[in-house]
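hey m, so remember when u said the tokens were messed up on ur end? i reran from scratch. heres the input so u can diff it against urs
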Amino acid sequence: MLIQCTKKLLDEVKGDVAIDVDEEPLHSWHANVIKLGRKKVVVLVNDQNRYAIVLYGVKAKDFKQLDQLLLKGIERVYAAEGIKKEIINQVVQNAGQTTYAKTKNPTTVARLNKACENVEFGEDMIDPDTIIQEELSQWVSNTLYGNGKNSYIVPNEELYKDLEELSGGEIFSIEAVVLKVTLQLRDYNVWRRLRVPTNTTFSSFHRILQTTFGWMNAHLHDFMIYPLEADKHNNRPLMNLVSSKHAFDFQGETPMALEGGKKLSDYLPASMVYTYDYGDYWVHEIEVERIIQNSDLNYSVCLDGEGNAPPEDVGGEGGFEEFLQIVNDVNHPDRKDMMDWAISQGYKSFDKDVINRLLKK
């Protein structure tokens, strides 16, 4: 395995640097170190497919074992992609002994810098409790990149092609769950049916729900995990997964944990409630309909749905009712202004095809 480092990163690694080393591109990486706040972040980009592995909060002792961190990153991030374990093992075993070198040419450095920019854009996905950033690595690698004149690639799709060629067959091994998510409203039916890989983290699931209902991720949220209906004799939640450490200041009897790193598979089968925006207080009941042992997709899909979700900051269900009265009255003097405001707040008609295009990204 070859890791070609920028000068900044070589100063941190402080290891022997080889000259004129050739390596199979699938096992060759370009790497840089950047800072997010006071934390050092190493971004490694594969030379062949431009897939990125992101390491956060890297310390002096970590730089000394950067190659081992990269291999662990490959194992964890590829597993999060749904890649079969035996294929991941093959990639790691084929990597061989690690050699460090300087960056190769301006083109590969420019590609590396672009990935670093996207890491900065995706900073809100950072899980501060782990060095290997699975979710951010996947997001950066699911971005469209220029690849020469009028040519573009998406790194994760290129990785899949490489692994299919390496293995000679199907590369995914994915369990998925079909969920019906219903927004609790007295007089309106707003729901979505989703198929989601069970290895999805709750922080990623939050973003899936935001996309599916047209929310804008402008407020806090949490998940309540309940036992299956048959076991719900006291209707008390098993766990409250929260998005902010400040939530612990208001903890009640229910055990509380940060959602970062927690996956659907950690709690399924279970009933769940997702609450978004503690002001307008949008409560979504999540029902498990079935588990799919061998899904052919490693991303979430909206299978069905009904109704338009309210605009952000509409004022809760009462405000939503007033909003609908105005926009449904073609003669109301405030109708146009209200619709312009609603569109700026993310309000849109339910469109399964549009949602699925966004989910695939």
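this time it looks ok to me. The first strand starts at residue 2 and ends at 5. if urs says something different then somethings off w ur setup not the seq
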